[in-house]
Amino acid sequence: MSTTYTLDTATSRAHPLPEPVRRLTVPAIAARKANGVTAEPIVMLTAYSARMAQLLDPHCDMLLVGDSLGQVIYGLDSTVKVTIEMMIAHGAAVVRGSYRAVVVVDLPFGTYEASPEQAFATAARVLRETGAAAVKMEGGEVLSPTVAFLVQRGIPVVGHVGLTPQAVNALGGYGARGRSEAEAAKILGDARAIAAAGAFALVVEGVVEPLARTITQAVSCPVIGIGASAVCDGQVLVIDDMLGMFERVPRFVRRFDDFSGRIADAARRYAAAVRDRSFPADAEVYQPKP
Fold first, then answer.
1. What is d(CA 34, CA 27) in angstroms, rounded to the nearest whole number?
2. Rounded to two decimals, what is the model's pTM?
3. 40 catalytic, yes or no?
4. In angstroms, rounded to a whole number, what is the distance separating the alpha carbons of residues 146 and 151?
5. Which of 198, 122, 215 is CA-nearest to residue 163?
6. What distance in Å separates the CA atoms of residue 160 and residue 166, rounded to the nearest whole number?
7. Cα angle at 153 between 109 and 64, to 5 degrees?
8. Residue 269 CB: number of other CB atoms within 10 A?
């Protein structure tokens, strides 16, 4: 059910918009793909903070609180080390900062694979403590009973197949998947199983382009690509990669800005102003009242 929020414009940092906003819903996202066609592609980006969510929200249909935060926020070498506490803290912040997009939170490695019951307990905690609309889980056909278990109990699920970063140790790296016929068939089977289990959307990451096309045509739910194909029903990127915060990015990333360069330049100018005592200026300090 849609929720309408009336925003308090007196506290603009917490509530940046002056008019009521209706948040998109999981059924609305699922319905974007009708009879195998998505007329308007779904726009998705990752977000990890309230302020970033505020900036991205007007432009995105979905905001993903990805476990990629382990690398881009915490400097970890993989997503395997991300904890449920990290995901909940950042998920709650993104929900507080957004009013339009459907917020999806990744379930971290080791918190859902053991059994459907474990996955339900983890997902229920995430939704309860963050206010997010859905969870995302990595895995193929073996995970389909878990997806069905959650969906049947009222927890919307986004699937994730292809290159699954939580399984990097088993995969042996981050290279593109589906180059061999056997691997492509396996990933296609995974996608079909997760969609059939009730996932309302499916992230397909790091697969060869023809396979991404085949998956998009083969499943009824929207397919959101990352390193996949332009014909997918939507696209997602890690926000820090898209903004140019890192020099080394995967091949599938397009850098839409050079934030790292602009931040470095701002820091340089700030340092110079401090050292030559031009900052703070008179207008930036408090004087005694007459």
1. 12
2. 0.89
3. no
4. 9
5. 215
6. 11
7. 45
8. 11
Catalytic residue among 141, 205, 247, 284: 205
Taken as a whole, the chain contains a residue count of: 290
Query: Could you give the CA distance from residue 206 to residue 90 in angstroms, rounded to a whole number?
Result: 25
Q: By the 8 A CB rule, do 225 and 255 touch? A: no
Question: Structure tokens of 218?
Answer: 């083969």
DSSP 131: -
**Backbone phi, then psi, for 247, in 5-degree steps?**
-75, -40
Q: Are 193 and 163 in contact (CB under 8 A)?
A: no
Tokens of 270: 């700030």
Task: Give the separation between CA 286 and CA 28, rounded to whole angstroms.
Answer: 51
Half-sphere exposure of 273 (CA within 13 A, CB side): 11
| Per-residue model confidence as pLDDT tens digits over 256-283 | 889 999 999 999 999 999 999 999 999 9
Give start and end residues of each alpha helix (H) in 157-208: 168-171, 181-196
pLDDT digits (tens, 9 = 90+) for 150-177: 999 999 999 999 988 776 666 656 677 7
Q: Which residue has the tokens 């414009």?
A: 9
Give SS3 for 90: helix
